[in-house]
Write a structure and sequence with these properties.
alpha+beta; two-stranded antiparallel sheet; 24% helix; six-stranded mixed beta sheet; 60s Ribosomal Protein L30, Chain: A
Length: 125
């Protein structure tokens, strides 16, 4: 059985997808970009500020589904430039400070709305 997770505390989906889907005790969070859920706009700032907003959005979705950052088992970090990796990683480490999940990180030529970072996450209980 699958359960669709939606919260107003995270940005609405900007295309045909759900914020998150839970199936058999596993939560799949769609890639989040640094959008302020109150305005629906990309936040101002560089990679550090954008990564912080992405992880706050992920935290709200985790919470809405009854999970925490400690339940995250895998993240995929997508950057527009690998030169942002160290700054992104420093912010990421504030949210995943012990028992970090498995992770992949790579660069692409562009992200929705001109974002510098997108992170998708899988959590399990």
């Amino acid at each position: 059985m699958k359960r669709i997770i939606t919260t107003e505390k995270a940005p609405r989906a900007i295309a045909t997808y759900s914020q998150a889907v839970e199936a058999n005790g596993v939560l799949f969070i769609a890639g989040q970009i640094p959008v302020d859920p109150a305005t629906g706009r990309l936040i101002e700032g560089g990679i550090s500020e954008q990564t912080e907003q992405v992880l706050k959005n992920i935290g709200e979705i985790l919470s809405a589904a009854g999970y925490t950052f400690q339940d995250v088992v895998k993240s995929t970090c997508i950057l527009t430039n690998m030169s942002h990796y160290a700054e992104m990683n420093a912010v990421y480490g504030k949210f995943f400070f012990e028992n970090s999940p498995a992770r992949a990180a790579f660069a692409v030529t562009g992200l929705p709305m001109g974002a510098l970072v997108e992170i998708e996450t899988i959590a399990s209980r």
